[in-house]
Amino acid sequence: MNIKLIASDMDGTLLQNGNQNITAKILEIIEALHEKGILFVAASGRQYANLYRLFEPVSKDIAFICENGALVMYQDKILSKTSMNKQIAFKIIEDIRSKDGCEVQISGENTTYLIPKSESYINHYKNVLKNNYKIIQDPADIPEDIIKVSVYEEAGIMENSGTYFINKWQDKVKCTVSGFGWLDFVSPNVNKGTALTHLLKKLSITPEEVMAFGDNYNDLEMLSLVKYGYVMNNAVDDIKNRYSYRSNLVEETLTDVFELNIK
């Protein structure tokens, strides 16, 4: 197994059971892999600033696939960025705002813009997600390109409004469930797989030299691209049945596969 790059989803994969912090063990593993010449990539629907803070001690040594593939960063440089059609983005935002129980998240390069309906959403954003954010009144006030729009439904997106949004917008944008309460909208050609492809080309690495970990539908293109696609045991059967490699914990799998002396 000649691995040069390891990409991992965050929520539900590297971070499980609602955990919002990277453990010291994971950081040690990333450092050990770096010493072996293996690049670690955090691949997430999260924003760059959030991911950079999470991995602060090793952020200079890893790459980031952010916003479900709309933004790829390495050593503080943009390797790729794909913006949405602004008029379509505005229509999706309006649709989300008109739907009871749904909150909107609008992603720029380093800032997320909110038009909150409730204090609980602001508190969730401030105290749980800990993104860089700004509260606005009108999407037209956003001073940069929109790279992702998301709908958040606390009671569960697919248990409630997810099918409505997917059916309405899937012919205009890429719609992907990225968590229990989240559905993301990005440009049609954007996903973690295309983002990883771009990164691999930049680094002259082939998919046969890559290992990836994921647990949800926004990870499928990435897992299918690489030779060693590991799906988490906590994933739904529909996802698990597509791949032969399984993992209970990313850190356990990496420690075993690469024989790392980390406890």
From TrEMBL:
Extent of the signal sequence: none
GO CC list: cytosol
Superkingdom assignment: Bacteria
GO MF annotation: an example: magnesium ion binding
SUPFAM superfamilies reported in the protein's UniProt record: HAD-like (SSF56784)
Pfam families documented for this protein: Hydrolase_3
PROSITE patterns in alphabetical order: COF_2
Listed name of the protein: Sugar-phosphatase
The species this protein was found in: Anaerocolumna aminovalerica
Taxon lineage: Bacteria, Bacillati, Bacillota, Clostridia, Lachnospirales
